[in-house]
Design a protein that fits this description.
By secondary structure, this protein is α/β, with parallel strands linked by helices. It contains nine helices and ten strands.
């Protein structure tokens, strides 16, 4: 059963499959009542992705309109590492990210969500500069395009950059074209990194830090994921809404926060054997928490 749209409230949705064609993502989203969707524009596990035909791009846009999907954004392949010490991996990452922005532009997708990168043994300071230099190279290659990069917050596993808001802010400082940089906040990731979302005081403190280092004007999207592990353990394991350690209290804070109503928010929760049923259940759960 489709989830009822909240037409005058949240830009809520899920990550949708492109199996069978790129245009199937908005079709799937519309069936769930989504107002926002996330999708892969190509392979999520390979460097190369096939080109999107003009006909498929046109149908994608038509299905967006027909389904009432207001915002679609992409998530990049997991192989990209803009902090890679290895020069060959770095070149592949830069070229692949440039290709991603090209596909986004063809589909009128405003931004692509990207994990900032891992510098391995080189350290955070080195990695932050490496990422910024890589983004500058990508923007040079795609200077004719408008699609942005949305750097995603991370859980802080291994050497990954982006578990602290100040790290993301430092990357932005070093990027020349700041008009094409934004951010995607993942609830599971920041919770795992040590940011509180549950109690009123902790929730307010987290958003104060976000505003101080990054600013709400550059928050392009939110991933709504509960966490299988408790706060501060740096483990990136998503759980269904209300079934993890963030729980109903944390997501009630988010769903009733007037500052977030117009921010696209999508689920990346476990799909299970019946993806549509599980996505619909999670969407209904989120909407049930709205009291304002």
């Amino acid at each position: 059963m489709p989830t009822k749209k909240t037409n005058d409230q949240h830009l809520l949705g899920v990550h949708c499959s492109i199996s069978g064609g790129i245009y199937n993502a908005p079709i799937e989203g519309a069936k769930l009542g989504c107002r926002a969707i996330q999708l892969f524009t190509g392979s999520n596990q390979r460097w190369a992705s096939k080109d999107i035909s003009d006909d498929d791009a046109a149908r994608f846009k038509d299905e967006m309109k027909a389904g009432g999907i207001e915002v679609a954004f992409s998530h990049t392949t997991y192989l990209i590492n803009l902090a890679a010490p290895d020069k060959e991996i770095l070149k592949k990452s830069i070229d692949t990210m440039a290709g991603e922005l090209g596909r986004c532009s063809l589909l009128d997708i405003p931004f692509a969500v990207l994990h900032p990168g891992s510098p391995k043994e080189k350290g955070a300071d080195w990695g932050i500069k490496r990422i910024a230099d890589s983004i500058n190279a990508i923007f040079d290659k795609t200077h004719m395009l408008k699609s942005k990069i949305a750097l995603e917050t991370t859980a802080g596993q291994g050497s990954s950059i982006g578990s602290r808001f100040e790290e993301l802010a430092r990357i932005r400082e070093l990027v020349d074209d700041k008009s094409r940089i934004g951010f995607c906040l993942d609830t599971c990731h920041i919770f795992s990194a040590g940011y509180e979302l549950r109690g009123e005081n902790g929730y307010k403190k987290t958003w104060k830090e976000f505003r101080d280092f990054i600013g709400m004007e550059d928050l392009l999207a939110i991933h709504l994921n509960d966490s299988k592990f408790n706060i501060g353990l740096h483990k990136d394991r998503h759980a269904n809404i209300g079934e993890g350690e963030i729980g109903d209290a944390g997501f009630a804070n988010i769903m009733n926060d007037p500052k977030l109503v117009k921010i696209p928010m999508v689920l990346e929760t476990p799909k299970g054997d019946n993806a549509a049923k599980q996505d619909s259940k999670n969407l209904r759960k989120l909407l049930s928490l709205v009291t304002v």
